[in-house]
């Protein structure tokens, strides 16, 4: 799954630019388009973390329809994939911890988008759920 969400950018009367995502909570702004896009990435991760914290499915990105895309960073994308795989397989934190031979608190941290986990641990957890993470490198637009 490619976690790339189209962002809505709106220029305000004072020249700042507001960034928001269709169907996701929150908004942010920047003095320039580039700054607004950087801030939008943080907003996107924070907004998606609400779904993970609530234990519900993360909404799929809507069609871009010409809007710029904001990509979820690699580690956080892997964590989102882990969260979704756990939901699809109806695997609890406790069960995944048992499969991995770790404490349940380790699984909670692995799923926390705002916690700095090691990608290798997330990959191991995905593997325990029958998933494999891959990396795609794209040119910066």
TrEMBL record:
UniProt-listed Gene3D superfamilies: 3.30.160.250
Organism field: Komagataeibacter diospyri
Protein name listed in UniProt: Uncharacterized protein
InterPro entries per record: TTHA1013/TTHA0281-like
């Amino acid at each position: 799954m490619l976690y790339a969400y189209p962002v809505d950018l709106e220029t305000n009367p004072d020249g700042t630019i507001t960034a928001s995502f269709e169907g996701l909570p929150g908004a942010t702004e920047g003095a320039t388009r580039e700054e607004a896009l950087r801030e939008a990435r943080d907003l996107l991760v924070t907004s998606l973390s609400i779904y993970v914290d609530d234990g519900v499915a993360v909404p799929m990105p809507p069609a871009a329809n010409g809007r710029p895309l904001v990509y979820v960073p690699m580690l956080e994308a892997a964590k989102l994939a882990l969260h979704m795989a756990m939901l699809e397989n109806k695997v609890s934190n406790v069960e995944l911890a048992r499969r991995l031979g770790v404490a349940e608190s380790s699984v909670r941290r692995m799923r926390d988008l705002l916690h700095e986990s090691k990608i290798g641990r997330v990959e191991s957890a995905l593997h325990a759920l029958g998933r494999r993470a891959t990396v795609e490198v794209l040119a910066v637009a």
